[in-house]
């Protein structure tokens, strides 16, 4: 499905990201996802004007896992996706979304761990985090415009 935006007559592709996926585009596109305690990291290459997003459920995988539902796998995969497009870490900016504690107890720990793995991983890679909309008690729908790096957030009803 395509969508037109920014008063542009030209429609751009839309991609909906589910848990355990990494999606990027070298062409203008809109990537969206729905987040509860999950986290999405959006990367934007300001030099090439391209972007990508991941969506992971839990912070840490079992050793040797390649499961993209885990942040310690999904974040390197996201960086690799951008590198495959010709991006260098020094040209990337990051934004982090999600990690709502939709219930007490374990959900709060999961959400906190999910954000921590993103911040730690991006810091180790030298990728600055320009924006973060995490926490709270309600989920979010996010829309990333890959050509500008803009991310629009809509909170879900609680």
Automatic annotation (TrEMBL):
EC number: 3.5.1.44
CDD domains assigned to the protein according to its UniProt record, in alphabetical order: CheD
Keywords: Chemotaxis, Hydrolase
Main enzyme class: hydrolase
SUPFAM superfamilies assigned: CNF1/YfiH-like putative cysteine hydrolases (SSF64438)
Alphabetical list of InterPro entries matching this protein: CheD-like_sf, Chemorcpt_Glu_NH3ase_CheD, Cytotoxic_necrot_fac-like_cat
Catalytic activity: L-glutaminyl-[protein] + H2O = L-glutamyl-[protein] + NH4(+)
PANTHER family: CHEMORECEPTOR GLUTAMINE DEAMIDASE CHED 1-RELATED, CHEMORECEPTOR GLUTAMINE DEAMIDASE CHED-RELATED
Family in the record: Belongs to the CheD family.
Function: Probably deamidates glutamine residues to glutamate on methyl-accepting chemotaxis receptors (MCPs), playing an important role in chemotaxis.
HAMAP family in the cross-refs: CheD (MF_01440)
Name of the protein described by the UniProt record: Probable chemoreceptor glutamine deamidase CheD
């Amino acid at each position: 499905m395509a969508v037109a935006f920014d008063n542009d007559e030209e429609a751009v592709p839309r991609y909906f990201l589910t848990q355990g996926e990494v999606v990027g585009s070298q062409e203008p596109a809109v990537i969206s996802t729905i987040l509860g305690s999950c986290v999405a990291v959006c990367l934007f290459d300001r030099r090439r004007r391209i972007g990508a997003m991941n969506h992971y459920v839990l912070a840490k995988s079992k050793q040797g896992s390649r499961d993209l539902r885990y942040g310690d796998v999904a974040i390197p995969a996201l960086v690799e996706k951008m590198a495959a497009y010709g991006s260098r870490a020094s040209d990337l900016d990051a934004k982090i979304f999600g990690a709502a504690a939709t219930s007490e107890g374990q959900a709060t720990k999961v959400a906190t761990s999910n954000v921590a793995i993103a911040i730690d991983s991006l810091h180790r890679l030298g990728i600055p985090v320009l924006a973060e909309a995490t926490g709270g008690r309600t989920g979010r729908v996010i829309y990333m415009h890959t050509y500008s790096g803009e991310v629009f957030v809509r909170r879900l009803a609680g």
